[in-house]
Design a protein that fits this description.
It contains ten helices and 14 strands. By secondary structure, it is of the alpha/beta class. The protein has two domains: 5-225, P-loop containing nucleotide triphosphate hydrolases (Rossmann fold, 3-Layer(aba) Sandwich), CATH 3.40.50.300; 232-303, Alpha-Beta Plaits.
Length: 315
């Protein structure tokens, strides 16, 4: 990942009548990142994405993509952005291939190159055999796959995905995930927006969380989890191993900051402690108690836990 800024958002505000969709939102992310923009439905994610992709103009603030002001170089910006909206934007009476060939013509992709690219993408998304079928006969998941192919047909420098897994089954979601990782490896910067927060943990290192049009936080997922863990009064530690010293094991149950010790089966234990500051001390006690430790795992908060916690403090 580069340290060069790909997207720079400065004090963006946008209203629709009396409804303020965005309120002075500012953040940036770098070239080569897969960056997550998270929030519930109605948080302002799609409005912000439409501003980034030059579909909407902000009431206030500015956006730069790869150093270019989007209000001054709209044509150039659109040529390097791929946008996959949450709702499918395809011609229902045309086939999958016809839709993609039409999109290729809008990007001035030479016909031979367009055919090669379309074949590659349709095979990647397991849709090649359906290439001559009309979109109106597709399921929502099948149409969404073509929608994604349309957004990445021209090999964009920045790919913006707004709820890209809508309507997809688990296998198709995995295909989309793997493809995002693949194009990112090849240099494409990715902005992923979603309200399904668990879906970004495997592919995003940094996220911004917005709610009610306001930026709540921007940080790495690791830092957000660490900060949330420190606030917890009760922490569960999962241990897999073999007991060497039964006296030490019994003593664990008498320590005042150890709330509970559960022996789940032959070698799996769950120990509940009071306070994050006791984790290191517990680890030392476990080394003195177990002859072998295969795994120690702390019950980490999820991004959804973090979001709920942060929005409670804001509201």
């Amino acid at each position: 990942m580069s340290n060069t800024i790909a997207v720079e958002i400065n004090n963006i505000s946008k209203s629709f009548g009396s409804i303020q969709a965005l309120k002075e939102v500012s953040f940036n992310f770098n070239q080569g990142e897969i960056f997550g923009l998270l929030g519930p439905n109605g948080a302002g994610k799609t409005t912000l994405v439409r501003i980034l992709t030059t579909i909407l103009k902000p009431d206030k603030g500015s956006v730069k993509l790869f150093g270019n002001d989007i209000t001054k170089k709209r044509k150039e910006i659109r040529e390097i952005i791929g946008y996959v909206p949450a709702s499918v934007i395809l011609y229902q009476h045309l086939s999958a291939k016809e839709n993609l060939m039409h999109a290729a013509s809008l990007y001035n992709i030479e016909k031979k190159r367009a055919n090669q690219r379309i074949e590659m993408l349709l095979k990647k998304f397991d849709m090649w055999e359906w290439r001559h079928e009309k979109i109106k006969n597709f399921s929502s998941g099948m149409a969404q796959k073509i929608n994604i192919c349309r957004g990445i047909l021209h090999d964009p420098k920045l790919l913006v995905l707004d709820e890209p897994t809508n309507g997809l089954d688990p296998k198709s979601r995995q295909v989309v995930r793997d493809f995002i990782l693949e194009i990112n490896e090849n240099g494409t910067t990715v902005l992923l927006t979603t309200h399904v927060m668990w879906s970004v943990e495997e592919i995003c290192k940094r996220v911004a969380i917005i709610d009610k049009g306001q930026l709540i936080t921007i940080d790495s997922i690791l830092n957000l989890k660490s900060a949330e863990l420190k606030k917890k009064d009760e922490i569960k530690v999962f241990v897999s191993g073999l007991i060497e010293n039964k006296d030490n094991y019994n003593k664990l149950k008498t320590i005042n900051w150890i709330q509970d010790v559960q022996h789940e089966d032959k070698k799996n234990y769950v120990i509940t402690i009071n306070g994050n500051d006791k984790v290191k001390e517990l680890q030392q006690l476990l080394l003195e108690t177990f002859s072998t430790i295969e795994n120690i795992r702390i019950n980490e908060p999820t991004l959804e836990d973090i979001f709920i916690s942060l929005t409670k403090r804001v509201n």
